[in-house]
From TrEMBL:
Keyword Flavoprotein appears in the UniProt entry: yes
Subcellular location, record wording: Cytoplasm
Native source organism of the sequence: Candidatus Protofrankia datiscae
Keyword list, A-Z: Cytoplasm, Disulfide bond, FAD, Flavoprotein, NAD, Nucleotide-binding, Oxidoreductase, Redox-active center
Protein name as it appears in the record: Dihydrolipoyl dehydrogenase
Amino acid sequence: MVDSAAGPVDLVILGGGSGGYATALRAAELGLTVSLIEKDKLGGTCLHRGCIPTKALLHAAEIADNIHESGNFGILSTLEGIDIAKVNSYKDSVVSKLYRGLTGLVNTRGIELVEGYGRLVSPTSVAVGDRIITGRHVVLATGSQSKSLPGLDVDHHQVITSDDALRLDRVPASAVVLGAGAIGCEFASVWRSFGAEVTIVEALPHLVPLEEESSSKLLERAFRRRGIKQHLGARFAGVKTTDEGVTVTLEDGTTIEAELLLVAVGRGPVSEGLGYEEVGIATDRGYVLVDHQLRTNVPTVSAIGDLRPGLQLAHVGFAEGIFLAESLAGLNPPPINYDNIPRVTYSHPEVASVGLTSAAAAQRYGDVVTQTYDLAGNGKAQILQTAGAVTLVAVPDGPVVGVHIVGDRVGELIAEAQLITSWEALPAEVAQLIHPHPTLSESIGEAHLALAGKPLHSHN
Ligand code: NAI
């Protein structure tokens, strides 16, 4: 093995996904020298196997829904079919364009991109093939991968992960989706829009079970209306594969037949065989443990993104990357506020939230107030014919600490809600803001007007 010819760099980053490349881009901008190691493609899960391709599929699905529903608006149209090859090439073209842009950014910032499989070999170095790359600091950003249940074998053919689902060259006639988190609900939504018979199996009592219960219930109702079958509070017992497809059995004896089973029961850290344990990095079930500065127990090593315990979201990876680069450059950035990270499930309808659920707020503050504004009173929602609601969670006579929204396109509204919870705004202060009419954003204003005791287009 030979040492990096140019001597140690400031930062060696293992993994070029959202967390890793954000760290690299910000660090380079601040004048640090950076080697970024990636075994596959710059952009990682989000760009190649996650956020971007799935949202492209969801957009194509929305177009199919618009055609199905166009008669409601007096526009007569017939969906002739889904050309999945074309859908996939549209999806791939979006990914390629963003990939080219990202590669260009990394190049122009003078970041050294090292293509290959990296392995931590000391607190300050990573081996890639027969090269050792040494840095003042090492950032672990190796991300996550789909996990399965004990005894449930993924064959990538009939029992598949979201990676396989994105590569399908057909719309399944029917599918069982195991797990109703974001991945399960988004694929259930896409496949249903494309005409598949879809059944969701979820162990907890609700779809998107970590969301405000009223949001989960609205999604359950909307999915039922769309013909998506749901087994909630249902335990998976096993699956048999045959030439025709799969037979899924639940613990109560129910059997469900379908063409395929999508396993969407969460994602686990990618940390095995990467030298972390040998170098003495503390982990918990494979997750790399970090302090509030994102430092591991080894002072020269940090870890960010899906690899550390906590929310597994690309935008959290971006924020952690920026924070870490600035802190390593000595800028003393403000800490990340993990309480106010927006979350969006991009199904039809969407579920968006920021801050605390009413249950979490009650635990923290004792007493809470909630206010729900039904989108039935919102002009734009009626124009779009979308059902849903905004639910606010607030401390009595205090700030708004949670905002929960369901409806089409509401993911675009959650950024305003993030300002509200981050600045600990009082309901009366938000009620002062004038929202443009008619927009979906007015529903946020209306909910706050109601919470401030002066409802406009709603009853209190
Ligand atoms: P998840 O952890 O969000 O949801 C998995 C679901 O599977 C849970 O509701 C869980 O109760 C259920 N489950 C677990 N074991 C089960 C069993 N034996 N039988 C039935 N149900 C069972 O994980 P998911 O959806 O796979 O997503 C992985 C990660 O990726 C999450 O952190 C998610 O937030 C993130 N992601 C975010 C997206 C977004 O922001 N739009 C999109 C896709 C993924």
